[in-house]
Amino acid sequence: MIYVLLAVLTGAGKVTQSALTKMAGEKGVQGGTFFFNAAKAGSVGVLLFLITLSSFSFHLPTFWYAVVYTVSLALSMVFGYLALLRGPMSLTSAIVAYSAVMPCAYSILVLNEPLTLWKGIGLGLLFFAVYLLRKEETGSKQKEKHWLWYLVLTFLFTGFCSVIQKQHQAVYPGEYCNEFSVLSFVFTAAIFLLLGLLRRERSPAASLVYSLPAGLFMGLASYLTLFLSSRMEGSLLFPLVTVTQTILNLLLSMLLFRERLCPRQIVGLVLGLFSILLIR
Predict the structure, then answer these.
(1) Could you tell me if 97 and 246 are in contact, meaning their C-beta atoms sit under 8 angstroms apart?
(2) Contact 32, 203 (CB under 8 A)
């Protein structure tokens, strides 16, 4: 039961960091893409480093896992940031949450977790739900096109992040979680900081009110995903996280940003939730 609660907390952390990122854009204080994300990754990287300093153990294979994860995480953060600024949080976060299909499929196809008939039906419904959740064609078509591409790329890299975490814990179950997390976020922060300096981005101090806590929630979700990957089947863990994300994302989008969904998109959300229950 405790693992289920932690999976719910993981989903809540992901939604909260998205909401804080979107709020920064709404307030017009987000500053540059790279500096904002450097603050997000740096806040959790420094915190984890200080917490685990006395017990940190360098492990070369984990180092390389962290390098690959860093590249995927950095791309996911950039494209996710741009997607949130150009589109509604309700759809952006909901569709990205369904990237759970990637680690689910990986767990079944590569790690040989059992595939039942209901899980297969659930995965098929999940893809159909994503199609129904596509954005209404309103406003600038160019802006819509940019949002769609950012969304697709965020979906792919977010899903790949979870695949890397699942594979690492399949090889080293319950081990090197701290080391993996510290290396990943420190590397990510360093990359964004360097890119921000090269582009001479502006970074208003007001953005830290949103970027720092957003980073902490992002780090919490990432660490819990890694921690739970060796303790729960991927075909159960990732759908549970997705259900939590979908419900909380819809509530926050309506309460904080006054976003509304059309009937087709509501049907997509319902089908998405139902598909996750079947996968479970």
Answers:
(1) yes
(2) yes
Say if residues 210 and 18 touch (Cβ distance below 8 Å): no
Which burial class, exposed, middle or buried, applies to 132 when counting CB atoms under 10 A from its CB (0-12, 13-18, 19+)? middle
**Dist CA 270 CA 224 (whole Å):** 26
- Per-residue pLDDT of the chain (280 residues), as tens digits, is 788 889 889 989 988 998 888 888 777 666 677 888 899 999 888 888 888 877 888 899 999 999 999 999 999 989 988 888 888 887 787 788 778 788 888 888 888 877 778 877 877 787 787 677 665 545 555 556 788 899 999 999 999 999 999 999 999 998 998 899 999 999 999 999 999 889 888 777 778 888 899 999 988 998 999 889 888 887 778 877 877 887 787 778 778 877 777 788 778 778 877 876 776 6
The SS3 assignment for 22 reads helix
Q: Encoding tokens for residue 138?
A: 């309103």
- From 137, 146, 135, 155, select the one nearest 265 (Cα to Cα): 135
**CB atoms inside a 10 Å sphere around CB 38:** 27
